[in-house]
Amino acid sequence: MFDNLSDKLDKAFHILKGHGKITEVNVAETLKEVRRALLDADVNFKIAKDFTTKVKEKAIGQDVLTTLQPGQLLVKLVKDELTELMGGDVAGINLSGNPTVILMAGLQGSGKTTFSGKLANYLLTKKNKKPLLVACDIYRPAAIQQLYVVGDSIGVEVYSEPENKNPVEIAQNAIKHAKANGFNVVIVDTAGRLAVDAEMMDEIERVHKAIQPQETLFVVDAMTGQDAVNTAKTFNERLNFDGVILTKLDGDTRGGAAISIKSVVNKPIKFVGTGEKMDAIDVFYPIRMAERILG
Ligand code: GDP
Fold first, then answer.
1. Please, which pLDDT band fits residue 70 given cuts at 50, 70 and 90?
2. Pocket test for ligand 1, best of 114, 134, 145, 187 (most atoms within 8 A of CB)
3. Which of 24, 93, 129, 188 is deepest in the core (most CB within 10 A)?
4. Does residue 87's CB lie within 6 angstroms of at least one atom of ligand 1?
């Protein structure tokens, strides 16, 4: 994961090695390489620029050049700033509702259905919850079928109304069903389109208003880099979502979405998907990710 970025950052810090005395020029050169590495990872230009400016200010503030191991201190400053950029602390999931309603939003193919299953499985096996999966895609019967396959594989009930073409009603009826049958989490998998379109945004906004979820999670394919960030912006403007789910991190060699999305939408990444299987889900820890990137 992000091997290129890790390699390039490693090379950037090499500039500081092999120098008897480190100068301001060496530090500036290193930070320039750090910026280049971030740009190559598909991090937005402004974010990369602000990032190195902040690290530089901190380096000056902490008198990096006069410390015993300036290289190590600079690596630490970069690590701290990366952690901050990715959200700082770990963001939990709000399970306070009775039942807790979780709405999944995102484009088709982003991994919504797979992630709905993973989340249900996580809540069932790790949080002792009784989740209900809800199929709210009224356009693609195959999507409903796919959720049944996922639900079967983890032993979680799926609610659907194949004849009903009103997703608001389906979601509301599912919540009633959950209340009547002792489910304490309702995960609503919605329809996605291949690109953002007005009808899709109106529909999910209507569902969102009607069911008032405790958690609205925006699911996005990490491999799409800056496109992921732009789509996140559009969804956030309409839904004011609570958190981001980055899927397919296992296939993401660059890392741009993971690094930039938080600072663009100001919403935390809550979970990541790291494979197709139902247990390929991880809580997102910014510090662990920063440590991994810096090796
Ligand atoms: P949806 O249209 O948003 O519901 O997307 P799906 O859940 O159907 O996922 C689309 C494709 O991505 C499927 O082939 C999934 O198996 C695959 N997928 C989903 N999440 C991950 C992940 O974390 N890693 C990998 N490698 N594949 C994933």
1. confident
2. 114
3. 188
4. no
- Mean pLDDT to the nearest integer, 62-91: 90
Q: What is the pLDDT of residues 211-227, one digit of tens each?
A: 999 999 999 999 999 99
Does the beta carbon of 97 sit less than 6 angstroms from any atom of ligand 1?
no
Q: What is the mean pLDDT of the chain?
A: 94
Distance CA 273, CA 129 (A): 20
Look up the pTM and report it. 0.95
Residue 154: closest CA among 123, 194, 127, 181 = 123
Cα(221) to centroid(ligand 1), Å: 8
Contacts by residues 87-90 (CB-CB < 8 Å, ≥ 24 positions apart): 87/262, 87/268, 87/269, 87/284, 87/286, 88/286, 89/286, 90/283, 90/284, 90/285, 90/286
